[in-house]
Amino acid sequence: MTRSMHKVSLAALVAGLLVAPAAHAQSAPIPEENGESDNAAVDAGSHVIVVVGRLTDVVVGQEDIEFRQANDLADIFRQTPSVTVGGSLGIAQKIYVRGLEDSQLNVTIDGAPQHGTLFHHIGRVSIEPELLETVELQAGAGEATAGFGAIGGAIRFRTRDATDLLAPGRDVGAMGKAGWFSNDGYKLSATLYGRLGGDVGVVGSYVYSDRDTFQDGDGNEVLGTAATQQLGFVKIGGDVGAGHRFTVSYEHRDEEGEFGPRPNWPVFAGDPLFQADAKRQTVIANYGFDSGGGLGFEGTAYWTRATFQVDRFDRWGLYGAAIETWGGDARILTDIGDHAITAGVEYRTDQVVGRYLEDPEVWAHWAWDPDIGQFEERGELIGIYLQDHWRPLAPLLVSFGVRYDAYDLDLVTYGGGTSSDGFSFNFGADLEVLPGLTVNAGYGEAFRGKEIGDGFTLEHRPGRDILQPGLRPERAGNFEAGVNYAANGFNLSAAYFDMTIEDVVLDQLYGGPPPQDSIYYENVGDFSSNGFELQAGYRSGPFGVRAFYTSYDSRLNGRRIEGYEHIALGNTMGDNWSLSASYDPLNSLGLEASLSRYEAVEDLEVLFRDAELGFLPGTLFIDKPGYTVVDLFARWQPLGNDSVTLLAAVYNLFDKQYLAHASVADYTAIPDYELVSGLPEPGRNVRLTVSFRY
Asked: Quick one: how far is CA 74 from the chain centroid?
């Protein structure tokens, strides 16, 4: 189907989906969960009723983020089941959900996708925890509202509004923080916020972080890990009356440092470091309307630009990549009898560019074609979705939905491309069997066509192919079932999931024989991940305890995956269990201790591709040692309110030396692979923060 045919056929379908529900809207609301209105949030994708995969969905709140003095992605998700963050250096961090890398997820900030890969040796998700109000995780393919390409799930970051910060009865406020980290650096932030009128406010933040080279658990300096980060953020908006609400925000993030040629791999003594700079600018506009009579609207428009530049002075000089994305999402929410219906349309366009930034005489002898120094790809995506939540009986909530997506990819520099389109469906049910006892089951699908490539690998040899002829889109299916009990201070849950991705699109190492290029995207087979999550919690007065255990097996074509060989797809983790205990004797005083354990992964078979191409006589085996990490946290408000808050934390209390399972595994014992390994995690790190608030 051509791009023009996509647009013509979609126009009719959009009209049918958006107009029909609005024309039949009635005022009878569906019973709500958790006491929240279906239209409570403006951000696209914020519909609070979720059935498919509900028992494994997670929300991390602002209080938890602040209490743990979160500095990066690893801190945010440290106590989240089925989520592991690899890469101890912030710029290199990657999120893995049930073994799938974040490139397989739909990740948004206030509804704006954080999409594309600038360089496969750095992370693609950058966010400042200081800005966050909530983080929502949907593990596995779910409902139709999850967004483009959510074959492994979705992560939604929501930033803070002025109304989230203002103290009751006040129209202006300010907050300042200063933090010190023993391993090693400091962080400063200042935030001003005020009410412009009614419930409309403005908030502005500046955050500066300076981190020196950290030490691992053995006391060794991990070279290439020093960096500075700066962030500026402005957001204006709120309720303007008559059911209308809007927000507009701008964020500018900058991270600079001297890193190794592959920032997620170690740097050895005497090796050069290269100056690098990563930037992201994002503009987001959200609008919401709630008629109060069963009709609502949510809309999001966004523009984001991310860049990464590194000075490879030993080779081709300064090189850079940029990804620019803009688009929007519009959805109507209606209540018709016992049905809560969401119908919407989504559009996104992506552009990725990689290019030499020096004069041609510096890089021409490195280029495949000295006449071409800039490389570009463009993508266009259109999606239409319909999701219904139906409560036929008071204890039963049923969900079903459908989504249609169309993908177009244009290889601008070299010509050619690919197009694909398809439907995905979901259905699920949530039944309260007894008061406090709920059973849940659901099945969700997701569809994804080929999207823009890695910014640093767009260049290829003339006359070579980078796309497999007849490349098929990926199709994911995710089945989940579980039970949850919540009563009398107890919360217990157990969930099983079985996730598959058919026709995985991946660039395997080294490409293949001509006419394939060294970068060659092809259908490499089927991915599967199945396992379970067990969670238990109890709260009585000031005491609380929480534990979880997760176990899953992630494979491609029946073989366990690994982050070096299956970069951009996933990684293998050991079974993970976590235990945390909290004691809050006063509202102004809180204490917590947590223990997290990853069991060893033994006899992990690796180097399939090298053996297939004859570089090795056969595959080899490596291990991922297990590790246990203990963290301590404390919060004290000496004046009895939040005007002054003192925070203390000790990460990695026992100075454990370890390599996170979500990092690249250690291949250094294999001859000719001595360079291949992830960065070790920091050793003991004491963090102290003081916060002043007016």
From this structure: 11
CA quadruple 258, 260, 264, 266: dihedral positive or negative? negative
Q: Say which residues have a Cβ less than 8 Å from residue 509's Cβ, sequence separation at least 6.
A: 565, 609, 610
Measured distance CA(310)–CA(459) in Å, rounded: 16
Which of 134, 114, 155, 132 has its CA nearest to residue 205?
132
> Cα separation of 316 and 312, whole Å?
6
Q: What is the pLDDT of residue 19?
A: 34
What distance, in Å, lies between the first and last C-alpha atoms of the chain?
58
Name the strand (E) or helix (H) holding 475.
strand 474-487
Per the listing, tokens 């040629």 go with: 261
What 3-state DSSP class applies to 92?
helix
Residue 535 and residue 517 in contact, taking contact as beta carbons nearer than 8 Å: no
Sheet holding 83-86, edge to edge: 83-86, 94-97, 100-101
Residue pointed to by tokens 């033994």: 602
Q: What percentage of the chain reaches a pLDDT higher than 90? A: 87
CB-based contact 483:535 (threshold 8 Å):
no
Rg (alpha carbons) of the chain, rounded to whole number: 25
Domain 3-693, second-level architecture: Beta Barrel (2.40)
What average pLDDT does range 20-33 have in this prediction? 31
- Which pTM does this prediction carry? 0.91
Measured CA angle at 427 (ends 385, 48), to 5 deg: 65
Strand order in the sheet with 516-523: 465-467, 516-523, 505-507
The pLDDT of residue 168: 87
| Angstrom distance (rounded) from CA 147 to CA 329 | 9
For a pLDDT cut of 70, what percent of the chain falls above it?
93
- Would strands 153-159 and 106-109 be described as parallel, antiparallel, or unpaired? parallel
Distance (Å, rounded) from C-alpha 304 to C-alpha 380? 15
Under a CB-based contact definition with an 8 Å cutoff, are residues 152 and 500 in contact? no
Three-state secondary structure call for residue 144: helix
Mean pLDDT, all residues of the chain: 91
CB count in 10 Å sphere of residue 233 = 21
How far does CA 185 lie from the centroid of its chain? 25
Span 532-558, pLDDT tens digits: 999 999 999 999 999 999 999 999 999
CA 251, 252, 257, 263 dihedral sign is positive
Give 494-550 as a DSSP string.
EEEEEEEEES-EEE-TT--STTEEEEEEEE---EEEEEEEEEEEEEETTEEEEEEEE
Q: What is the mean pLDDT of residues 631-636?
A: 98
For residue 427, give both structure tokens: 């259905």
10 phi and psi, to 5 degrees? -70, -30
H/E run at residue 404 = strand 396-410
| pLDDT band, very low/low/confident/very high, at 49 (cuts 50, 70, 90) | low
- Cβ–Cβ < 8 Å for 237, 246: yes
235 is written with which tokens? 């957001």
The Cα 142–Cα 401 span in angstroms is 10
* CA nearest neighbour of 454 among 140, 101, 84: 101
Structure tokens at 607: 């180097």
Tokens of 690: 């003081």
Both structure tokens of 413: 């520099």
pLDDT digits (tens, 9 = 90+) for 653-683: 999 999 999 999 999 999 999 999 999 999 9
Question: Residue 78 has which token pair?
Answer: 């440290």
Q: Which residues contact 5 (CB under 8 A, 6 or more apart)?
A: none
* 3-class DSSP state of 118: coil
How many CB atoms are closer than 10 A to CB 558? 8
